[in-house]
Amino acid sequence: MRQPAPSEPALDLSPSPGDTVKTTTCYMCACRCGIKVWLADGRIRYIQGNPEHPVNQGVLCAKGSAGIMQHYSPARLSKPLLRVGERGRGEFREIEWDEALSIAAGWLGAIRERNPDELAFFTGRDQSQALTGWWAQQFGTVNYAAHGGFCSVNMAAGGLYTLGGSFWEFGEPDWEHSRYLMMWGVAEDHDSNPIKLGLGKLKARGAKIVAVNPVRSGYGAIADEWIGIRPGTDGLFAFALIHELLKADTIDLDYLVRYTNAHWLVLRNPGGADDGLFARDGEGRALCWDRDSGGAQRAEAVDISPAVVGEYMLADGRRAVPVFHLVAERYLDPQYAPDAVAERCGIPADTIRRIARELAEAAFEHPVRLPVAWTDAHGREHAEMVGRPVSLHAMRGISAHSNGFHTCRALHLLQLLLGAVDTPGSFRYQPPYPKPIPPPNRPGKQRQANGALDAAPLGFVHGPEDLVVDADGNPRRIDHAFSWGYPLSAHGMMHSVIRNAWAGDPYKIDTLMMFMANMSWNSAMNTRQTMGWLTDKDESGEYRIPHIVYADAYASEMTAYADLVLPDTTYLERFDAISLLDRPISDADSACDAIRHPIVDAASQRLREDDAPRDVRGFQSVLLDLGARIGLPGMTLDDGSPRYRDYADYIVRHERAPGVGLLAGWRGERGELEAKGPPNPEQLQRYIDNGGFWRGHVPEAARYFKMSNRAYLDWAQKLGFLGHADPIALQLYSETLQKFRLAAQGHGAQQPPEQHRERVATYFDPLPIWYEPFEGAQVEDAATRFPLSAVTQRPMFMYHAWGSQNAWLRQIAARNYLYLHPDTGARHGIADEDWIEVESHHGRIRVQAKFAGNVQPDTVWTWNAIGKRRGAWKLDKDAPEGRKGFLLNHLISDVTPRGDYANADPVTGQAAWFDLRVAIRKADAAGDAQSRPQFEPLPGPAADDRPLRYGVEFRRQR
């Protein structure tokens, strides 16, 4: 008997991830990739990369994919909260929004009438600074800053005062043409998907990749060569490379004369008020020495033969030398020879010499020639674009040191000597950069008749006259930014605000308002004392910081220290503008901006069926509401009613200048204009229809030499990126820094108070310098007592503190270790996975060690921001993040060992996280398997111990 043929099951070979798909912008790191969010029955089913998006071209990392569990996190806040117990205890009662906004408006309104500077408004991982900075300006407080002061201001300021652009988000390597890439201090957190795409292109072409970092992870793991440098010595390494290039005469003098101030004359008048300034004509234009005519000519003139070395006497009897003469004089000094710096950097001298030869070979023996005709800013026509295929890229590893500003400048000097800035194959600017040097916007400091500041609170100082100080030279800002202690603090100094507010230095404030700033935990140096300052009371029993308003989407450690908590939405529930006025997502060949828009409604987004509905609002809309309630300029109509309905309305209708708004795409009444034009009521819908982004391509003839390319300068001026189309001379030598040094030497109308003079004179050198980071230099016998450097890196799978509450990402790592080289363990009598004590001059912690061969032997390291305070983030009070996870922050002082300044770069105020020096020893065997210090768990509802199996309902439906 024949058996019946088996029946084939019905297979869906192309299952749809959901019933609806929407495009928006990811917020799981600062990369801001385009994503496609699939929904099923109104719930988020799947997140994938958007192949059409210019940032990631469809690539998505683990963080982006896990955005589902960020959105559905148990730690989400759900109602406004008003403190009912002691601050820091986390005891609140839920209130309605009207009451919350009335309370906040009452505090803020009284401050504005009395003294706007009594409000300190500081934002953390905020990507809407174009709004928050404008809001602070309209409020009239100088006390506003963003997270960049403890993150990346050295990088930004070092680049913007040298190149008119910088590493990180303002520039990128030429992934298509580079033959040699050096990555300095680059971890896997920022810009990760574009870097991965770019590295793939370099590897496919056989380009060499060199990673300079004390830790080898991520990108460094696939590099062709890893240079395990000692932390804080990158500047010395760069100077040794410069020394070798100068000694071998392998530099691009033609590039230097065409595009930099290498030939500008610097006055030599020791003791004089003009010493070290540029020689200028009667119209203020810089001069050079023309060898053909034997006299001074305008440095920008064409068809001259400028001298780059030698001393020359000007017609008025003053003596001057070219900038390049000073460069050669300094860096040819034997103190910068490879043999002189090798031991300090931990890099063999032969390796330094070889890297210098390889850079020179790639740059000068393999020039890139593109058959693209272009015209420079002086009218000279070029039949092709010729470039040096050497790229440098750098990040926090060089920035987060007290010598980081000058280290960043040292890397830019290295690039310029190679002719490797915005040429084919080299570092490239991303529009709207380059900017004039320094950028034109100065920090606001005077209040107008309507109470608003005369400019935004953050900006770029051009000289001592721009400092925000009083008549005696003392700080006017609560964080001391833009003072004689930290003059070029372009992002502010968020890491100093809590100590200074507690101390009333330089005055007492009334309200500290913060957004997404976990300043009681992983964003704080000196964590234990910071928590104490937030809760400390004066003799009358009142809190020294009277009011704290905190906005966040999640119950972080900081939430417990607020008096009023304003619950934010998740990034999939609100509008955001990723603006060219703020932190752009451009690439080198196009200007780009983007939006986020509500994919789902917050009230409907429950993690479990028995969860209460959430009543949350986007903080940007809340800010505008508060501004209207207290009548801030620009936020109300003549009748006192709100000018803007919400943040989405503000994005569309607000104009920073006539025709210039937050978004550049589809401007004009019909959306026919780009960058400049009247508001378009349908603008947001046009973005949504286009995948959430706008992209304006740079003309082909304008894509390189942007600082001196007529087509680019005209295009950038037309789009409003530049106020004028003059060429931008790149600055090997900074006259801005020299102005401060002259002031410290007793010249000019604005001079530093006596206690700051030596500091300013020392660190405001117009050429890059290197000095020992302050912690190593100021602690007595530091090399013996604290022989190891200690640094953190952000893992590729967790960007920030909010990532380590994510149920999916926690499966990758739910605690961290202190990683050390096996040889380091052997030297200190430590075995793999021993519990150890780690001590700095400031504190002591107890952690578990783990051996790793991917670290320089004089350095220990760990992953950043995984350690949690128990009870925070709605994690179980016995979660590994709290029991075994830890922060190095407990070891880091917020002031220098001498106690006279913030633990920060003296030029910019950048927090010096990576200056930390430690000693390690095996812990007492009697201790339990738990990290120290441990703090009392934060109270709150018990964590739900049911497993999070998000998505099972979708499988059941199928």
UniProtKB/TrEMBL annotation:
Record's subcellular location: Cell envelope
Co-factor requirement: [4Fe-4S] cluster
Biased composition (Basic and acidic residues): 943-958
CDD domains named in the record: MopB_CT_2
Cited Gene3D superfamilies: 2.40.40.20, 3.30.200.210, 3.40.50.740, Dimethylsulfoxide Reductase, domain 2 (3.40.228.10)
Source taxon at top rank: Bacteria
GO MF, one example: metal ion binding
Sorted UniProt keywords: 4Fe-4S, Iron, Iron-sulfur, Metal-binding, Oxidoreductase
SUPFAM superfamilies linked to this entry: ADC-like, Formate dehydrogenase/DMSO reductase, domains 1-3
Region (Disordered) residue spans: 925-958
A GO cellular component annotation in the UniProt record: cell envelope
Family designation: Belongs to the prokaryotic molybdopterin-containing oxidoreductase family.
Descriptive protein name: Molybdopterin oxidoreductase
Lineage: Bacteria, Pseudomonadati, Pseudomonadota, Gammaproteobacteria, Lysobacterales
